[in-house]
Amino acid sequence: MLRYERRGEAPLPRRAFVGRVAIHALMSLALVAVSLLLGMLGYVRFERLSWMDAFLNSAMLLGGMGPVNAPQTATGKLFAGTYALYAGLVFLIAAGIVVAPIVHRVLHKFHWDYDERG
């Protein structure tokens, strides 16, 4: 679990902060990669698409563009709709994971009392 500095603690040095942002970016990348794999598995299973077409459709949905191939089966349509809703949430969550340490640093510097450095 990542530990953030508390109100009375000094902000992280720049090097440690960059490391924190990198860790968050890797967590976000892992979430997107797992989501892409889940989408590919669903398209291969329910729509019988090739792995390349499944990748394209999943990547387009995760990127917010929409699917390339229209679903043909009832289960494929159900999967595509559910995955599209999931992909929209993944986009927001991934962005939040990356932005969280930056917002924390700004708010922490705003609230940190420089006289408490001791």
Task: Report the CATH C-level class.
Answer: Mainly Alpha
CATH architecture: Orthogonal Bundle
Number of strands: 0
SS-derived structural category: mainly alpha
Helical coverage, percent range: over 70%
Computed CA radius of gyration, to the nearest angstrom: 20 Å
From the N-terminal CA to the C-terminal CA, the straight-line distance is 28 Å
Uncertain stretches of 5 or more adjacent residues: none
What characterizes the major β-sheet? none
- Helix segment count? 3
Number of domain modules = 1
CATH topology: Helix Hairpins
Overall mean pLDDT stands at: 89
General form: elongated
Question: What share of the residues does DSSP label as strand, in percent?
Answer: under 5%
List the secondary-structure elements in sequence, H or E: HHH
Structure, described:
With 118 residues, the protein is an all-alpha fold. The protein has a single domain, classed as Helix Hairpins (Orthogonal Bundle), CATH 1.10.287. Helix content is 71%, strand content 0%. The longest helix has 38 residues. The two termini are 28 Å apart. 16% of the residues are buried. The model has no long low-confidence stretch (mean pLDDT 89).
Short overview:
The protein is 71% helix and 0% strand.
Main features:
Helix Hairpins; mainly alpha; 118 residues
Secondary structure layout plus pairing:
Elements: H1 14-47, H2 51-62, H3 74-111
Helix pairs in contact: 1-2, 1-3
